[in-house]
Amino acid sequence: MFSSRPAEVSQCWMMGSIKELLKNSLNDLRKEQLKEFQWHLKNDYKVPVSHLENADVLDTVDRMVQSYEPDDAVKITRKILMKINQNQLAKDLKEGAAAFYRKAVDDDSEVSNRLKKDLKQKYERMLEGNSEKSLQNTYLNNIFTDLYIVKNQTGGVVNEHEVRQIELNQSTAAEDASVKCNDIFKVQRDTGEQNRKVLTLGIAGVGKTVSVSKFILDWAEGKENQEIIFIFPLALRELNLIQKEYSLMELIHEYFSHTKQLSSLPEEEDKVMFIFDGLDECRFSFSFETSKRLTDVHEKTTVDVIIINLIKRNLLPSALIWITSRPAAAHLIPRRHIDQVTEIRGFNDEQKKVYFTRNSKPDMSERIISHIKRSRSLHIMCHIPIFCWICLSVLQPLMMTKENQDKTPTTLTGIYIHFLLSQMKQMKEKKHSASLPQSFEDVVLKLGKLAFKQLQKGNLIFYKEDLEECGLDVDGLVFSGLCTQMFQAEKPVSGRKVYSFVHLSVQEFLAALYVLFIYKNTKTNPFLLNWREKLKWIFMKKSLFNLHKSAVDSALQSENGHLDLLLRFLMGLSLESNQNEMKGLLPSLNITAEDMKHTADYIKKKIHQDVSSEKSTNLFHCLNELNDDSLITEIQKYLNSDGLSAQDLSPVQWSALVFVLLMSEETQEMFEMQKYRRSDEAVIRLLPVIRNTRRAL
């Protein structure tokens, strides 16, 4: 019986083959037997009389395949043949159809195996470097560390910097249910239900693409999710480049070369999966309400219409859909079209240890972990896997010799300064053996310009014209080695290269560096956007403090906090000690104690103005980068004296208290609310802390 087709094949080929089977069966009927066959069609299966009037064998077959799906036409024909005592013909038809479907399954299996082979080749290695040069190939299975993924996140618009989101998600609420990457689409034990459309959120660099790669690799190697016949991973940063119209099948043929013989796709549940990685990198708009309805996999249209109709289940409704995105872009897909939202939180504390232990010697990993734990901000950032890699590349060389251990950085800015200096050393060593078209300093300045301009636009991916606009020699940049560690190039199927920084924080660090470059060289303030502000700058004292003031104001005015980390880096890079580290790269600034005091006082003034807890937390991080801990020391005295509950705290003291508690590892496990003044104001002020603890008393 054929109640469920093993696989869908080319509609034209299928119809043609089924017609041949039916024609051969009915050709053996005598005239009166064919008439009796048609009578059953009219009376038992409600085929209109007009469709069968004066119909011969060929006409009858045509009417059947027009009225029914191919496998239904076969089933009906067999049933009628048995009713009119043509059992041998019914048996022959059954065997013929079975052979036909076996061939269809074999063809799908052949394409599936070739697809698995291609995807295994593509995803089994992580290219730590430029893909064209193949500088380093690391097997994904050797370096992959499980990531912490939770269910039941709501998605939606996020109006805060992603690093801030990591800080707020350090603890795991009791209702958060963790899930393994390979289990996301399996039937859930607790509900017995299966997710068909999943949106996975995560900040930049937290491991979304690596998780997708591991899912695909495990499938391609035959380890997991083998009920799926085809997986088609499509990066949205590549789909951006498509200008012409495609059908879904043409799109698959374009991106997966060994699928050319595949003319359609299986229609059974769970046989096909589409993975759309990087919703936040998508540059076309999704119009879920007004987009045209698409049901035919062979109909040509724009890429966004194809994606929308796959998600809405108009097109190939049986397919599984997995979308990854940074949180800020989650609203692009209405929540009603998603079965499950998951969130990748990166590494938990145990997974951090596993990462450092796996990638360094035991004694070295212990020293690195111990050092990171001493700096709360570094420890929090290590939830991001790529930041662990940056820390490892910076700290391991410094900790190998005793004389360098005093130089081991404890701030975010310090880590990135040493990361940049290590890249400068590598590039200058390379320059001795090859003629590089651009100096390191020149490349960094132009990369900084690209970083700042694109950060203002909210872009994390760029194209050749964006680089050329900033004066970057694309070929020289690739050859320099900076495309290895800080900047990366990808060449998608379309042939048009896509560029990005290895992580958003690298983009923000270089943007801050660029701000100081142009301030020193041209006395320009890039934070001034309108002509009134620019005119005022011309006539004011162009002090470092006034630059800092503009940066603080711009960051506070940002609705989504996109300048928060840039501001932290700008403060850190302005310190004299960090200036000394950057000699030869960053032009020496005329730093005065007066400027730095004015900057710290201005930040405290803004905290005093009772800004949101998100904004004030970032401002405290800025004070930390400036080595100003006066507010923290003051609030720590209250905490240590157990006299805090009796105090009437000022807004700035409340902000300091919230910052201290948020940075406290103990508070994440349990927050004893009764220690503090009990009032409605206290509950409101301490709400960020309450949200970030596992247990509040």
Tags for this model:
single chain; 697 residues; alpha/beta; Death Domain, Fas; Rossmann fold; six-stranded mixed beta sheet; elongated; disordered N terminus; NACHT_NTPase
Describe the structure.
It is a single chain. The protein has 697 residues and is α/β, with parallel strands linked by helices. The protein has five domains: 11-109, Death Domain, Fas (Orthogonal Bundle), CATH 1.10.533; 147-346, Rossmann fold, CATH 3.40.50; 349-410; 411-606, no CATH class; 629-697, no CATH class. The chain is built from 34 helices and eleven strands. The protein has a six-stranded mixed β-sheet with strand order 3-8-4-7-6-5. Strands 9-11-10 form a three-stranded antiparallel β-sheet. The radius of gyration is 31 Å and the shape is elongated. The termini are far apart. Residues 1-16 and 128-136 have low confidence and may be disordered. InterPro entries: DAPIN, DEATH-like_dom_sf, NACHT-assoc, NACHT_NTPase, NLR, NLRP_HD2, NOD1/2_WH, P-loop_NTPase.
In short:
The protein is 54% helix and 7% strand.
Got a strand count? 11
- Strand coverage percent: 5-15%
Span of the ends, CA to CA? 63 Å
Shape: elongated
Unreliable sequence segments = 1-16, 128-136
Q: Rounded to an integer, what's the Rg over CA atoms? A: 31 Å
CATH architecture of the largest domain: 3-Layer(aba) Sandwich
Structural domains: how many = 5
Number of helices: 34
What's the name of the CATH homologous superfamily of the largest domain?
Answer: P-loop containing nucleotide triphosphate hydrolases
Question: Average pLDDT value?
Answer: 79
What share of residues is helical? 40-55%
Keywords: ATP-binding, Cytoplasm, Leucine-rich repeat, Nucleotide-binding, Repeat
Protein name: NACHT, LRR and PYD domains-containing protein 4E NALP-epsilon
Subcellular location: Cytoplasm
Pfam families: FISNA, NACHT, NLRC4_HD2, PYRIN, WHD_NOD2
